[in-house]
Amino acid sequence: MKHTTNLTVIVLMAILFSHCSEKKGASTEVKTIMEVTTFGINGTVDPLDFKKRDAQIEANFTSKQPGFIKRQSGINEKGEYVVIVFWEKLTDADASMNKFMSDPSVADYAKMINSSTMKMERYAMDKTFDANKSEFVEVMTFNLKPDTDLDSFDTLNQKVETDFTGKREGFLQRLTGIDEMGKQAVAVYWTTKKASDASINDFMADPTARDFMSKMDQSSMFMGRYESLPVHISNKEKVIALLNSFNTGDQTPISYINPQKYIQHNLYVADGLAGFGEVMKNAPEGGFKAKVIRAFEDGDYVFTHTEYDFFGPKVGFDIFKFENGLIVEHWDNLTPITPANPSGRTQLDGTAEISDRDKTEANKTIVKNFIYDVLLNHQNDKITSYINPKKYLQHNSVVADGLDGFGEAMQYFAKNGLVMEYNKVHMTLAEGDFVLAVSEGKFGKGDPTAFYDLFRLENGLIVEHWDVITTIPPKSEWKNENGKF
After folding, report:
1. Which of 109, 252, 374, 469 has the fewest Cβ atoms within 10 angstroms?
2. Looking at the whole model, is its pTM more than 0.90?
């Protein structure tokens, strides 16, 4: 993070803010300083880790600085962040920033932020913050058109609140302000995102609002809409909560499934919430249990590696697809838990920590090429181009570590007339050094099979492998028509 304190700028801000107060009158005098910082986080950072560290920064650092009033962190639908801090005076904001830049206790937080995306602005605001129950904020900044009369605009600005925004359900507070260069700011606080969403279309149709927007230089306008970070639930968090609800009985996570569209690829479960509910009704005494060992997010998809008590101890991979924040599709592969393999590894142990998030796409490509070259096209001479010959940790129930273990398993299959045949890759998902491949083929005596393979990579080579292999049941046993893949 980079910030330069300039005495000339501070003096200029003081003069301009004072002028703003005198011109607007006592009722709209400067009451507080709003500091708005927008940014993205680095690709190597887990958003869940950032969320946790951000809360610690607020509790242990920012809130303890002189002149602090309120700090709020938010995130928009694109995954872009905002931190809004209200200060009593401009000098308080500067002192806090200078301390932040030199305090080693917050250095790790600063490194999480992509400095090239960071933008900080400060505005003198007309009200003291009073929207503590807000879960959603809109921030609009803009320059006025050159011929705009400031007195008339100030009147119109306040009229927007009295005639429209202040009358909307879920409205909490609207603050307006100006920065040292004359840029305007409006911050509107709502109880929830839903309340804000409900006002947008009507706002654009309101004559006062249209007049207000017409005074802006559209090329300078910025509009940010952010859900409070502590309240925001990522797709990964939703899936973990849904699976954990097997243990707690909490019904809230069911709301993360789209009731109008839930496509089910577990062939023993019917489509929709009705199919999900039918399974739950058949749970044994004490219910089902689930322990998420690993969870990953790739765009609109979340995939997990989970230990289940689901009609007996099982290990499974689940894939959930999201649309507009709701689960709309589900795939899975489950198999009974078995004893440790010849190397003493289980189907679930090993590292769960995700690293190399900046290599997600590269690792995904490596795994795709490995499956096509080695597993589909049997180019075994290329195997060491994909698998580390010195380190290959194996979690398959019957296969030992290393390429020797893999080779011995293949020899056993050949000797006993068994097959392990990959015919098609249906899906490849990844986060950082973990890549999940979903493939179709034949196994054992030639039964149609679904292969779910999870790979971990280091420096461009596969170093660890988990899998779940299941037979695809005949269509006569399916409870939906969506297919396994």
Report:
1. 252
2. no
